[in-house]
Write a structure and sequence with these properties.
Blueprint lengths: L3 H15 L46 E5 L8 E4 L5 E4 L7 H10 L4 E6 L5 H4 L2 H7 L1 E7 L7 H12 L4 E3 L5 E5 L2 E7 L14 E6 L2 E5 L5 H6 L8 E3 L11 H7 L3 E4 L12 H9 L3 E4 H4 L2 E5 L4 E5 L1
Parallel strand pairs: 3-4, 4-5, 5-6, 10-11, 11-12, 12-13
Antiparallel strand pairs: 1-2, 1-14, 2-3, 7-8, 8-9, 9-10, 14-15
Helix pairs in contact: 1-5, 4-5
Amino acid sequence: MISRKTLLLSLLCIVALLLPSCAKRQAVDDSPPTQPLAQPLVQPFVQPTIQLAQPLPLQSDLSDLTVHFLDVGQADCTLIRLPNAQTMLIDGGSRSSAQTVLDYLISENVETIDYLVITHPHEDHIGGLPGVINTYDIGEIYMPRVSHDTQIFERLLTAIQDNEYQINRARAGTIILSAPDLHIEIVAPVNDTYRDLNNYSAVVRLTYRNVSFLFTGDSEALSENEITGNIQADVLKVAHHGSYTSTSEAFLERVSPAYAIIFVGSGNSYGHPSETILSRLSSAGVNVFRTDENGTIVARTDGDAIEFNTH
């Protein structure tokens, strides 16, 4: 149980993050935070800031897009090496996999994380991020404006504040990067308030030439049904470890993926992935990779063809 003092300190950290004083980057807005669990941190919201990144020269050894779905057990962490030589990280695994994440970033010779997307504040998505933020220079941070009364969420906010970073609000319509043949956009959450933290999940669509990826966090059917943007993707990161509460038939039909990736821990107590979801993916002709069976999964594409390697 988190004490009132700890919760107050967490909220004060949030306020400090949203103030524009002596920060490295401008905050999206500086409205006062709210306290209840599963409620937005900031009300009312302003129009999301659109980040129009200048394209960087393609390097011969980075002309492909590579997406690394790390084997972090019952948790999520995706490293993306963009074809313009930039790096993106979506979530950071759990506390128990924090060193695994750092070791993998080192093995990939990552020097800077240009874009960090924190889909939502559950421990299995943010547990390893304080260490990442304290180790690497971060360009832009995107996170939904929602609080969670846990020590790991407080540690995350403290790491962001100590490094003088600011948080860009993750919501539908936010463009993270737009360059020739390369586009990254947040397509959910659409609304401001949900009863379940999972539905605040930032859903990111990445398109490189003729190939698209959709990263879904733990978004559930409610959020899926609200998305109005284009969500067609060749590769789908299946939401919520393959839980039956996500990946509805209507959503899967709209995405129409050829491949699906499921982050899931071996022998987990949740029964993930759901047999219903596995059957649904199979019936749709989707090729499925699972971290509990395949380990870390790496997708590489030149913008036309996709190849997969596992280790």
